[in-house]
Amino acid sequence: MSTDDRTASMRHAFEAMTALNGLTLPPERVETIYEGFVGLQAMTADLRRPRTAAAEPAGIFVPDTIIRSAAP
Amino acid sequence: MTEPLETLSIADLGTGLRNGSLTSAKITEHCLSRIAELDPALNAFITVTGDRAMQDAAKADRELADGTDRGPMHGIPYGLKDIYDTAGIRTTCHSKLREDVIPATDSVCAEKLAQAGGVLLGKLSTHEFAFGGPSFDLPFPPARNPWNRDHGPGGSSSGSGAAVAMGMMRTAMGSDTGGSIRGPAAYCGVIGIKPTYGLVSRRGVFPLSYTMDHCGPLSKTVEDAAITLQAVAGYDAIDPACADMPVPDFRASLNAGVKGMKIGLLRSFYADAEGMAPESSAAIDAAAETLRSLGAEVEDVQGASPFTQYNSCGRVILLAEAYAIHEEDLKTRPLDFGQLTMERIMLGAYISAADLVQAQRLRRELSQEVNSIFLKQYDVLLAPSSMTPAPRIDAPQKGFPLAWPMQTMPFNVTGNPAMSIPIGFSDSGLPLSMQIVGGYFDEATVFRVGQAYEAATQWHLKWPEPALVEAA
């Protein structure tokens, strides 16, 4: 994919996700948010490592305490 | 006591309160006087609760006279970042969206500090919702750095850092999701500790990111921080993240020194990092040398994952959770947020479910790296707090800066206790700092190392010049 194609694809993805999320971005803020979106793609690529299916996410869930909605 | 009251530690103030040479009313009047004199140039406060403070102080004096002693915070003035709920006192989050919100109940930390006999001076500036600024498009101005008011105090607990550094109070509560306690502590030259995730209840503190938020103090000295943390730590059955375990006496081994300790320096985090100021790097080397001279063995940590992975992991989780919290307002009234806050939090909308799960998988791996490898080899770790001194407050801000001068995010990802401590000053007279990082629920060792370093270097005895602030 050429750089121009990649840029167009990225812009298309941004616009599609904006619409899917039901967001109306103020026109004067769109470019700044798009720049952030591009940077975010680099960050999310950084999250991937070789892993087995058994590599679980963080989070400790203790069954008797995970739901606390009232004082004891 | 003849020293200026702002130079007395919480422990020294406590001695004065108990031997009759001081009253809480006198200490509180002194703090309120400094706030009236100095805060117009620093904007550390959103709300000063002067009447409430004098009532709290009078009550503390009566109780101490009657023999009721609530402990080291009894009669001591403090402040709260304005995201901590306070019954009957507005809690704005420094935002137009909550400008007139007056909570009906106290946050757990506010309640605990009141029970400990603390004197609430007021509510302190923050970056909007603990994530924006410094911003000039909000209902309240941004706080400024007491060492040079043309520079920012860091954020998001900006008012807490500025107020403590300027001697308006010895201690204040902040919150830290990616460095919001340690950043302002670093830029303002005070102590800031992000405790272990789960040590302090977050209930009643406006959330930014559920799995990354931590509550903790910014204080003038290590001992002041230990006393404050002692007052707020402990189990809260209603906070789902709070750990049900005993809280140790954080001061029990405060003066035990570092002789024989093994300390790991996370040099790979910053050695080749773009933007690391040479004077910051040199100050960390000097701090490591000081700890060696006190009897610790300090060596570089080998095999750490790149800092960028810790940072990416934390930023993705933070953005996703922050967006979920603010989704409704971002959809319906995005322009009511400050520009920076809106442009940053909005990015959470573009994170996929797979991205978030991959971030959480990486989070487990990085937490294991720090705790199952590094902290098995070392008693504590050292890392920079910030790679630079405080930037100018009018420095251009990007919506989503990829290069971030703070090196605090890794320990929000892992949940370890991490304390920022002053380690000198830049050529321009701004504070430099480092982090001391400990094992889970081992704040006592973090304080112990910090106390040894602080006693050996005495950076805490330096103060910003009030005349420069008053003249502004």
TrEMBL record, chain A:
Q: Tell me the domain of life.
A: Bacteria
Protein's UniProt name: Uncharacterized protein
Biological source species: Thalassobaculum litoreum DSM 18839
UniProtKB/TrEMBL annotation, chain B:
**UniProt keywords, alphabetically:** Transferase
Q: Which InterPro entries match?
A: Amidase (IPR000120), Amidase_CS (IPR020556), Amidase_dom (IPR023631), AS_sf (IPR036928)
- All copies of the Amidase domain together span 27-446
Q: Name one GO molecular function term.
A: transferase activity
Origin superkingdom: Bacteria
Under SUPFAM superfamilies, the record lists:
Amidase signature (AS) enzymes (SSF75304)
PANTHER family listed in its UniProt record: AMIDASE AMID-RELATED (PTHR11895:SF176), TRANSAMIDASE (PTHR11895)
Name under which the protein is recorded: Aspartyl-tRNA(Asn)/glutamyl-tRNA(Gln) amidotransferase subunit A
Which species is the source of this protein?
Thalassobaculum litoreum DSM 18839
